């Protein structure tokens, strides 16, 4: 069932003081729920990232945002709160206006839920909103030490000298995927990038709980020699397996690998990142093949879809519509698409598209994490033994 975000938002604000016109709205992106991931499993501490909140004014009268409060609730009781100061609200308004002027909503629409968050007749602005203007609050991090099932955003402000308070609520989920998945590779691997906050995946909606998987050698590096050839990398060409049984909904092959996308031996890390940023902007404009490279996407039921990206050219073994069993080979690890070195990008998300979806935390089976104190979900930087 598709949720009408505007209708939901309107219903949530029925308790707000009635004005002559429509009350301001609070919208979320993603809108269905916000999901946590363990920060520290022994103590049960979860990390939550609220990706986007839009405060929208549909009324001709200007609305000035004065205060924003984030509240974590369990069974209707507030467990924790965060208050944004006047300085933080001013900074949020400044960033919101800059985002609107930069055109980034059109460049990476998957990060802002397309027009579901900011409608086509609305524009981003600062902390004082004219009609059809919105202030965007992005990427708020919260830690949960007690159970929480709801996140509420309360906004107080002023319309024509009258105080107004509105709020919106979104469910909080702290469970993992409904299906338990096998690791998509066999042997000893390095989960270099994962759902932890210090790596890039967590900050992008489709890949918030995704993994970039490589293999380490005896030196602790992922390659031998100078790392300029794909065959220098220990992971290159490894067999990739279906993590669970399902039906193939996308199978794309034919994208070539670009050795210049990798860091060159004489290139500083800073210079490489600058070049990489420019390259990624071009790839975003070129379409999904330029980003994911050769890839397979599978439907596992329960609105769970797995993605295997950056596969080696000519290696994809499955076709669209094919039913594949857990553990069956589907391709080989490569470096196609937006890939800085040979690795497997593996993610789980809630829609049958690699980008226009929200990530889902993955429950793995038949793995060991040698450095973990007890069995726990994978984190960025873990060495993992897949059986």
In short:
This protein is mostly beta strands and 387 residues long.
Explain this structure.
The chain is mainly beta. It folds into two domains: 5-173; 180-386, Glucose Permease (Domain IIA) (Distorted Sandwich), CATH 2.70.70.10. It contains five helices and 23 strands. The chain has helices at residues 5-12, 86-102, 104-107, 269-286, 288-292, and strands spanning 25-29, 34-40, 45-57, 63-74, 77-84, 123-124, 128-129, 133-144, 150-159, 162-173, 180-182, 187-193, 211-214, 239-241, 246-252, 294-299, 305-311, 323-324, 329-332, 344-349, 363-365, 367-368, 382-386. The strands form four sheets. Strands 1, 2, 3, 4, 5, 6, 7, 8, 9 and 10 form a ten-stranded mixed beta sheet that branches. Strands 18-15-16-17-20-13-12-23-22 form a nine-stranded antiparallel beta sheet. The radius of gyration is 22 Å and the shape is globular. Mean pLDDT is 93; it is low at 1-19.
Percentage of β-strand residues? 35-45%
CATH superfamily of the largest domain: Glucose Permease (Domain IIA)
Measure the end-to-end span.
38 Å
Gyration radius, rounded = 22 Å
Largest sheet: 10 strands, mixed
Shape assignment:
globular
What is the name of the CATH topology of the largest domain? Answer: Glucose Permease (Domain IIA)
Number of distinct helices = 5
Determine the structural class based on helices, strands and strand pairing. mainly beta
What would CATH call the architecture of the largest domain?
A: Distorted Sandwich
Indicate the low-confidence ranges by residue numbers: 1-19
Number of domains: 2
């Amino acid at each position: 069932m598709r949720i009408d975000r505007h209708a939901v938002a309107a219903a949530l604000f029925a308790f707000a003081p009635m004005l002559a016109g429509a009350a301001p709205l609070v919208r979320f992106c993603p809108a269905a729920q916000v999901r946590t991931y363990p920060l520290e499993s022994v103590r049960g501490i979860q990390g939550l990232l609220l990706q986007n909140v839009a405060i929208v004014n549909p009324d001709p009268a200007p609305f000035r945002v004065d205060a924003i409060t984030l509240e974590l609730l369990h069974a209707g009781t507030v467990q924790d709160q965060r208050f944004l100061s006047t300085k933080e609200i001013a900074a949020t308004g400044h960033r919101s206006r800059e985002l609107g002027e930069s055109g980034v909503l059109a460049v990476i629409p998957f990060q802002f839920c397309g027009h579901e968050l900011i409608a086509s007749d609305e524009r981003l602005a600062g902390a004082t909103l004219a009609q059809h203007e919105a202030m965007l609050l992005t990427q708020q991090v919260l830690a949960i030490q007690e159970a929480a099932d709801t996140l509420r955003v309360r906004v107080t402000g002023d319309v024509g000298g009258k105080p107004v308070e509105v709020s919106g609520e979104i469910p909080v989920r702290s469970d993992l995927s409904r299906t338990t998945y096998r690791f998509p590779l066999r042997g000893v691997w390095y989960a270099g990038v994962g759902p932890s906050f210090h790596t890039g995946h967590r900050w992008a909606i489709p890949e918030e709980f995704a993994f970039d998987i490589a293999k380490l050698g005896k030196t602790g590096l992922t390659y031998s020699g100078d790392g300029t050839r794909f065959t220098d990398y220990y992971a290159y060409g490894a067999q990739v397996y279906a993590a669970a049984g399902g039906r193939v909904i996308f199978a794309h092959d034919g994208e070539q690998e670009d050795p210049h996308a990798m860091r060159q031996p004489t290139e500083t890390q800073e210079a490489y990142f600058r070049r990489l940023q420019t390259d990624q902007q071009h790839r975003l404009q070129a379409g999904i093949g330029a980003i994911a490279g050769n890839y397979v996407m599978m439907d596992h039921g329960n609105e769970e879809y797995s993605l295997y990206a950056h596969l080696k050219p000519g290696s994809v073994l499955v076709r669209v519509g094919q039913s594949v069993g857990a553990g069956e080979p589907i391709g080989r690890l490569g470096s196609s698409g937006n890939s800085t070195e040979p690795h497997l990008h593996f993610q789980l998300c809630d829609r049958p598209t690699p980008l226009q979806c929200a990530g889902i935390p993955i429950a793995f089976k038949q793995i060991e994490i040698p450095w973990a104190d007890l069995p726990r979900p994978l984190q960025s930087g873990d060495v993992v033994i897949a059986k």
